[in-house]
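Submission sheet (multi-component)
Chains listed below:
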Amino acid sequence: MAYTIPRPKLSLAEKAYVPALLTGLGITIRHFFAILSGKKKVTMQYPDEKWDTHLPPHYRGAPTLVKDDYGRERCVACQLCEFICPPRAITIKPGEIPEKDRWRKVEKYPEEFDIDMIRCIYCGLCEEVCPEQAIFLRKDYAVTGLTRAEMVHDKKRLYELGGVMTGLVNKWNEKK
Amino acid sequence: MSDLLIGIAISLLKTLGLLFAVILPMVSYTVYAERRVSALIQDRVGPNRVGPYGLVQPIADAVKLLLKEDFTPAHVNKFYYWLAPACAMAPSIMALAVVPYGSTWFGQPMVVANVDVGVLWVFAVSSLGVYGIVLAGWSSNSKYPFLGGIRSSSQMISYELSLGLSVIPIFLICGTLNLPAIVKYQIENGWFISPIWLKGISLTGINFPELIGSLSIWKLLLWIPLFLSFIVFLVSMFAETNRLPFDLPESETELVGGYHTEYSSMKFALFFLGEYAAMIAGSAVIVTLFFGAWHIPLLPTAPEQLSFWPGVLLGLAHIVAFFVKVAVLLFFFIWVRWTLPRFRYDQLMRLGWYFFFEIALVNILLVAIILAIMPK
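Outcome: structure written.
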């Protein structure tokens, strides 16, 4: 069905184009001076200023392993994170904790714990699934390397990034 | 014989000085300014990494463009393909030859060629610039450049007329085409852009009888058509230099870059530089015709009458004043580019033929009538 599109009735000022032109020039020059004088700021000068201090607490950066107040590595090598990881970035080689160790009753620890940061999609499922509060997504986002091998975070690097996290549930204490 | 040689040497010195010390750096820094100003207008930052505030950016750009592969597609007409970039750059520089960019410096008048056909030379040479674009479009043997070339030529035909006609009132008033003479007239009777001109005010004091004598209704009356002239000339200059809102030959969004689609490396850069050189030449002509060229109000206008050092300084100040005025106009060019969208093609032709052509004609009549009844 054919229908007529109503054309807007333009006033003389609108037809003359000049007032609209001047308004436009006004808008652009206002933006120009607002940015020039630093009154308004839009762009972050990335390598000079960084996101680090502005990141929200729930930011999902690189996944890391943490140790607790007792210096114990919290991971018990249950491999839940390895299984849930959608891109299969995590590889764990479990090992047995020796008889005489203080944390013998935990039974397992990860001998090797690799996260391939080329594969990682920062989804945070590993953190969510971990029954031991051992893996956390921290605020490191600039993960770079010159080779593929360098992009695989091994256990040492993961603990370096993760550090110590206090205030977690300590269910493996001797008294419990 | 030796006089001739000295004359040639001075001419060469002026030409090379103007070209290499002023115009080429100005061209590269206009590109930088374009990028910075456009960034600020669009709430961005712009190039600020190379050197302090990114000031070395033009040199980095030049190095990049020179080192790129100079690729000539197999399907082009080689001769014209190579000729076109030179045709785009040369005319705008040639147009600057007659522009008085300073009063006198070391006793030499600061204009490369003081010829009586001044403005005609500017129009003749600057419209040659279209050949670069048309040749590029044609020789590229490809659809988009071809469309760009066609658009450019028809646009040039439409706007050359109003460009030429719009400045005729100035020649009616001055009675000469010689640009230095037009500047001299403006110094005595006021810039053409200014509605009133107060004489008798100087740094040493105010001469009241002369001040009151200079308040003339005729100057104000003449200002109306002259202002119209200025508007028509300015807009036509936008079209002539292929700047937005009239950048139809280039139109990145429809024609993928238009006439220079097939060009790469330094040949592309020449088109780019040619566009900016044309902008500078256009601004220089506008400054000369309407803004009193190198004239600074309140300051003396003849450095050769002063003693040596003040004379040299004043001469330099005049040259700087000229290029500051040009820079302000260039800023306006850039400002407009990042404000207005591109005209549609029929709108452009309509504006040129239906409005500016007629306005320019009526304007000439208006000035002629005012001059006829004006007391001498």
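Remark: The first helix of chain A runs from residue 12 to 16.
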